[in-house]
Amino acid sequence: MAPGPRTDGATLTASARVAPARATRRRRLARVPLAPYLFCLPFVLAFLAMVIFPMGYAAWLSLFQERMVGGTIFVGLANYAFVIADPKFWRGIQNVLWFGMVQIPVMLSLALVLALILDSSLVRARGLFRAVFYMPYAVPTVIAALIWGYLYGPSYGPFTQLADAMGWSRPAFLTERGMLWSIGNIVTWEYTGYNMIILFAALQAVPRDLEEAASLDGAGPVAFALHIKLPLIVPALMLCAIFSIIGTFQLFNEPQILQSLAPQVIRTDYTPNVYAYSLAFTSIQYNLAAAVSFVLAAILAVVSYVFIRLTSRFGASF
Amino acid sequence: MAGLAPRAVANGYRRERIAAYALLTLFLLYSLLPLYYLAVSATKTNTQLFSSFGLWFAEDLNLGANLRALFGHDDGVFLLWMRNSVVYALASGFGAAAICTAAGYALSKFRFPGRRVMYAAILGAVMVPNTALVIPLFLLFANLGITDTWGAVILPSVVFPLGVYLMKVYIDQAVPDELLDAARIDGASEAGIFASIVVRLAMPGIVTVLLLAFTTTWNNYFLPLVMLSSPELMPMTVGLAQWNALASAGSGGQALFSIVIAGALVGVLPVIAMFLLLQRFWQGGLATGSVK
């Protein structure tokens, strides 16, 4: 990723190219050209306005409370103390932790195996498989959750119909016990192909002559995939894992959509983001919602950091 | 890559190959099942949805009737939602592509004080999920009184740090320094060089970023859900979810099920079509981002 060598010409600005007599001044101007700043300006402004400033504002807001009597008052870290002691917040954290510990390994193992197969010379029609596997990622999560919600349907869903026809007991997709698994299935459906593409791209960068050398040594495609390719794409795998962890902690769309099917199971504290949403829009407690967002971000930062530290021992680098 | 593979590998390993095909086929069916179910269900009336077997067609096809019902319901508000989705996604896509290309170009081809800080900030921001910013953004916009406007959805969607990174990496490879130097010697202005050389050479990368930003916005739910309250401003995702909640809540709303399913089909088709037509660009973007 290291930038290539630059020639002096790249730092000349149009205005500095006036007269040879002003050569010394030109060189000084050329050292701090205006053009790159102008090119960056739109992004920097948008970034400040849409990322940095809102975060600062929310941080400031999280230090206040709206009281029935007395209006808005500064309360320091009281909102944070409330969130940290709030069992509803921790119930959400517990849910996403459980979810992540099961769903992420399942999804990434699947993505890895599929990518390894599609990168090997074992099978044909690899482009077709790749395209179909990646397709769910193009489906809006809302629509994915909606369709799976119908598929899970306790009275009319096809799985229930099948179970009834076979005389089996009906699958309990939308119950207290089944819900996290059902959401896990939706997320796996949506993102396995996406992760597979990232891993596949990393595999494509593995030198091809390694395969020939391996096959001369008598290593089959499976041994080659596991002993040579897999170690080489560990960094890409870790990247997928980090993005998955982040996505898991931010889980919102799927439970929010399924809520209407099972309001007793998906309560307002089902995930931290569902909780923050209900704080902001059902109870109109903006200050508390802001505090929840920040505590969630802090927990996420710690978890990501620990994950990176733990996995960097295995040769992954970020 | 098949041509490069040694013949022995291609012809032998029967057991491995059967296992590989079995797994691929299983996952293929799994990937297609919900879409197949959606297509089948979209042909059924409300009664048929409950009375017929979910994974096969009912005795008659009612797709046309469902579509008419979809576009007629609530004075044709669905068409409005589709238009909003298109407007939001196009504005975010083009906005993000323009902003990211300019910033990516600066990071790729100029050395200037502050460059390293900016690059580090962008790499850090790639890790910040959009959803983490939704509540803070809403709080700020509510304070400024600009929630429930088009801008409340478009402006945040234009900031796309991954796009800047992708453009920087792409321009590194696609735009030779010599060409830029030659243009400067010829007296071209920086703006002219950008518009005529950089944009042209980086076009595949720009299309990738545009596509990624377009789909992200098309598929976005949390942000518009939080920002918008007027039905006539909502994108398709938020509107459909609302109808779905009405339908699931019972109390007469159940007549909406067939409409929601038809809406889901119509909402999915544009992105799927775009995805299939422009596959090269999607996969290219993800590949650049991960391999470095």
From TrEMBL, chain A:
Its main location: membrane. SUPFAM superfamilies: MetI-like (SSF161098). Pfam families: BPD_transp_1 (PF00528). One of its GO terms (cellular component) is plasma membrane. The chain crosses the membrane at residues 34-56, 68-85, 97-118, 133-152, 232-252, 288-308. Keywords: Cell membrane, Membrane, Transmembrane, Transmembrane helix, Transport. It is a multi-pass membrane protein. InterPro entries: ABC_transporter_permease, MetI-like, MetI-like_sf. Residues 93-307 form the ABC transmembrane type-1 domain. CDD domains: TM_PBP2. GO terms for biological process: transmembrane transport. It is found in: Cell membrane. Belongs to the binding-protein-dependent transport system permease family. This is Sugar ABC transporter permease. It comes from Histidinibacterium lentulum. The lineage of its organism: Bacteria, Pseudomonadati, Pseudomonadota, Alphaproteobacteria, Rhodobacterales.
From TrEMBL, chain B:
It holds the Pfam family BPD_transp_1. Its main location: membrane. GO terms for biological process: transmembrane transport. GO terms for cellular component: plasma membrane. Keywords: Cell membrane, Membrane, Transmembrane, Transmembrane helix, Transport. It is a multi-pass membrane protein. InterPro entries: MetI-like, MetI-like_sf. This is Carbohydrate ABC transporter permease. Belongs to the binding-protein-dependent transport system permease family. The keyword Lipid metabolism does not apply. It is found in: Cell membrane. It comes from Histidinibacterium lentulum. CDD domains: TM_PBP2. The lineage of its organism: Bacteria, Pseudomonadati, Pseudomonadota, Alphaproteobacteria, Rhodobacterales. Residues 82-278 form the ABC transmembrane type-1 domain. The keyword Disulfide bond does not apply. The chain crosses the membrane at residues 20-39, 86-107, 119-144, 150-171, 192-215, 255-278.
